[in-house]
Every structure is written in C-alpha cells, then in structure tokens.
Inverse folding.
C-alpha cells in the first residue's frame, strides 16, 4: 500500500499553483501562436501580440500572467489502495497548499475568494478554500488536476436543459455571443453533456483540463461523433467573428472540449464554461515517494512575437485631459495614456453609491479624471505594483451614470459595455477604453507610481492613484456611443459569411 504524506500533497499543490501562475501551458501558447499568424484583423492581431509578449515576460519574471489569479479548482483521483499520513483531510491538505502558494513572498498571488458570498462577502485573504472534486479509482496513487479560474471567464458559464431533440451546436452558436468578451478570448470552450444539471457543469469544467489538439484533430479527421461535434462547434464559433478581446477577428476559440455522461430519457443537460487567455491548469501524480514537481517549460517553444505600441497610436496626457479631447477620439483608435488615473472596482463603486446616498463627501474627486477598473497583485522587489490588467467593465454598468455625474471623463476596463452604460457615456460625451485582458504583467510595466488614496480596508478593491506612462488602450465606446464590440464582430461575421458563400 502506498502511503502519501500530507506534507507532500501540500507542497505539490503549492508548487503547481505557483508554476501555473506564470507559465502558460505550452500547448495553449503554440495554438495562440498559430492564431496570431493567421489573424487578419489588425486590432485582434495586436491584442494577441500583447498576450504572447505578456506570456514570455511572466515566464521569465516569474510573475502572474493575469492579476486575477483565480479561484482554485482541484480534481482529485484517489487510488483506493492509498494510505495517508499526517492527520489531515484531503480538503485541508489542498487548502494548505493553496494558502502557501498565494502567500508566497517571492510571488504573492491575489486573494480573490470571498466568504459569506450572499451577504458580507469578506475576503478570506489567502484564497482558500479550494473547490475540490474527489473520485475514488483503482490503484495506489493520487492524481491532482489543478486549475486557477479567473472570475471573468467563470462568470460567463452557461447552462441549459435542452430537449432531447435539440441541437447542441445550435445552442452553443446562439449562446456564445451572449457571453460577450469578458472571458478574454481567444480561449477554449469546455462543454459537458448529460448526467444531471450539476454533473454537466462539472464535466464542462473538467473538459477544460485536457490539452489543446484541435489542429491535430482536424489533420487526422474525427473518429467519433463527439469529435465531429467538437470540430463543428469550433468552426461555427469562430465564424461568429468575435475575435480576440471581442474586437472582431478570425480566432475566438482555439479548441472545444467535450465530456459526456448518461442522462435521463427526458433530459439533455448541457453546461459550457470558457477558459480565458490566462489559461492555467496542471496535472501532478503522487505515489508516496515525495512531492511532485512540474518541469519548467522550454521557452524556445514560445512564438518569437514582440509587441510595441503602434506608431499610429495617439498620446494622451491624462493630467490635461478635456471633454473636447475625449470627443475627438474615434472608435477603435489606439491611445497611449500618460499621467494620473484612479482605480476602482465593484466594491469601491458600491461604497461610493452608499456614501452619495447618505449625502457624505467622497474621499477623492473624480472630476476630469479617468478611472481604471482593476484589482492589482501586490508588488514585490522593485515593483511599484504587481500585474494589473483590466477587469470586466460590464459589472460597473449600473454605476456608470453615477460616476459620470461626478465629472468622470472616461473609463478603462475590458470587454463590452451594456446599453445602459453606453447611453450614459453618449449623453455625458465621455468614452470607454479597453486594455487587453490576459496581458496584466505587460500593462503593469506602464505604471510608474501607485498609492492607495481611499478605501484601504478593501485590499485589492481599494482606490489607487496610478501614474502611468504610455499605457496602451483602445477606444471601445466613443463619445457618440459607437461600440467596437458591436461593429467589429459584425464586420468579421459578415466577412466569414461572404467567404463561406464563395466556397
């Protein structure tokens, strides 16, 4: 009987989570490199270049790919012949590994897990507990598949109870556009079919742990009905023209993974969960001989893609920004921001709303300012701030008019804005810009100073003042209310349809 020590499980989990925080899986990078070579949309190609450049920077600097270092999900396959040493449950072992990984002083990861989720939403400060799925299997080993799933992609999970006669590819094609761009494409889709509602979603999550092999699958041809469906869904989703960061383009997904399970005769439950541009997962096996460690990847497999600001990009001085200058920005125009901006996310916006409702003065003025929707990683060594990529802007839609009423000129986030926010932006003559999700370490290099100016008790949700130099952004909603997240995919969808008609 193999005996597995609690300390070995803890160390294996710690090491794996640190590893995936700064190393992309090589299969993802190779697939993204192919997508970069084939991409014809300039905006999408630039976004992919930023993601690839960020990936190499993170791998070399051992700093997080994305500021959202995720909630930890662990699929554990426990051999029925395993004995244990250490007096801890498997949940306790995994959680202690998570705690040590996220509090590592050399590469601290952002704690994003909230206890009491329906009410007080208090940060646990160490990213525990993990979400653990356990299966007993034959053998005397322990297999752990670990993922760190960011909120932007997790929030776009979809589920449906289809009729047995309904088409799954049709449902996926209808549903993916409703996910917007907050999941930071290009990524993967995990699809779970069958079982019961909760089983279908677990299958979808587990499907995302498999390596990317769509190019190989297409080259050899499908050998099962599920492989045929994978290819069909892959082609139909990419024909939607959503593209990198939702800007319009050829590559929205790099692969589609499907797992299924027998289900009730009256049912066809289907779950779908995306992986984002910060795809993070790893597999380790313990046999009782000690901790398991992942080898460092060969960075020569990373595409030789360098990113630099476009020479056509307009430089903007945030310290002298006016409404007239904002009104001159064009949809899709690339800007380089320099000067001081404020930050704020969900919790800060909610506290601002509560203070205004009580007639209390705000701790900082937003008049003639730009706000960046971000929750950064803590800095280490000579950093002024850790990786600091954008968060999904749609979560701030309901606060947008309130913030514009405080004199705000513009906002920076990721993904599309909803109709309510776009109308408020148009009426105020303001603008919304996007930074590239999945390029957090690259973006952080543009931040030269960072200090907390309000709500320090909120941790990463506090309001910071960032002084930036040539921070790259794209105008996503202009002062007239024109959204590139509507116009870009529409143009590339029409282009795909025209190409299909010619074939």
């Amino acid at each position: 009987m193999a005996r597995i020590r609690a300390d070995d499980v803890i160390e294996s989990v710690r090491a794996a989570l640190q590893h995936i925080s700064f190393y992309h899986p090589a299969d993802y990078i190779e697939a993204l490199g192919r997508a970069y070579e084939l991409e014809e949309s300039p905006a999408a190609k630039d976004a992919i270049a930023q993601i690839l450049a960020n990936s190499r920077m993170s791998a070399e600097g051992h700093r997080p790919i994305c500021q959202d270092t995720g909630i930890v999900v662990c699929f554990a396959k426990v051999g029925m012949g395993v004995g244990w040493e250490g007096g801890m449950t498997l949940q306790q072992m995994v959680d202690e590994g998570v705690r040590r990984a996220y509090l590592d002083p050399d590469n601290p990861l952002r704690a994003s897990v909230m206890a009491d989720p329906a009410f007080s939403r208090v940060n646990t400060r160490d990213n525990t507990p993990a979400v653990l799925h356990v299966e007993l299997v034959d053998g005397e080993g322990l297999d752990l598949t670990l993922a760190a799933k960011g909120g932007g992609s997790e929030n776009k999970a979809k589920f449906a109870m289809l009729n047995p006669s309904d088409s799954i590819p049709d449902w996926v094609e209808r549903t993916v556009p409703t996910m917007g761009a907050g999941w930071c494409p290009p990524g993967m889709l995990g699809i779970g079919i069958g079982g019961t509602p909760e089983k279908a979603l677990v299958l979808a999550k587990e499907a995302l742990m498999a390596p990317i092999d769509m190019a190989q699958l297409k080259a050899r041809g499908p050998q099962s009905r599920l492989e045929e469906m994978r290819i069909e869904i892959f082609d139909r989703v990419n024909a939607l023209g959503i593209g990198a960061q939702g800007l319009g383009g050829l590559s929205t997904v790099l692969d589609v993974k499907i797992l299924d399970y027998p289900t009730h005769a009256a049912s066809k439950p289907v779950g779908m969960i995306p992986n984002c541009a910060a795809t993070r997962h790893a597999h380790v096996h313990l046999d009782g001989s000690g901790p398991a460690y992942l080898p460092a990847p060969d960075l020569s497999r990373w595409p030789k893609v360098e990113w630099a600001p476009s020479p056509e990009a307009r430089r903007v001085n945030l310290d002298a920004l006016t409404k007239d200058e904002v009104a001159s920005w064009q949809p899709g125009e690339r800007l380089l921001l320099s000067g001081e901006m404020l930050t704020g996310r969900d919790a800060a916006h909610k506290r601002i709303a509560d203070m205004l409702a009580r007639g209390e003065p705000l701790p900082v003025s937003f008049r003639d300012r730009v706000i960046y929707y971000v929750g950064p990683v803590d800095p280490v060594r000579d950093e002024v701030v850790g990786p600091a990529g954008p968060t999904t802007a749609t979560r701030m839609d309901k606060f947008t008019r309130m913030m514009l009423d405080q004199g705000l000129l513009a906002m920076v986030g990721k993904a599309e804005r909803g109709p309510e926010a776009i109308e408020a932006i148009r009426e105020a003559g303001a603008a919304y810009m996007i930074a590239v999700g999945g390029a957090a370490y690259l973006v952080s290099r543009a931040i030269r100073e960072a200090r907390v100016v309000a709500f320090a008790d909120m941790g990463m949700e506090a309001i910071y003042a960032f002084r930036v130099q040539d921070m790259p952004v794209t105008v996503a909603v202009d002062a007239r209310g024109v959204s590139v997240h509507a116009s870009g995919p529409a143009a590339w969808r029409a282009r795909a349809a025209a190409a299909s008609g010619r074939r």
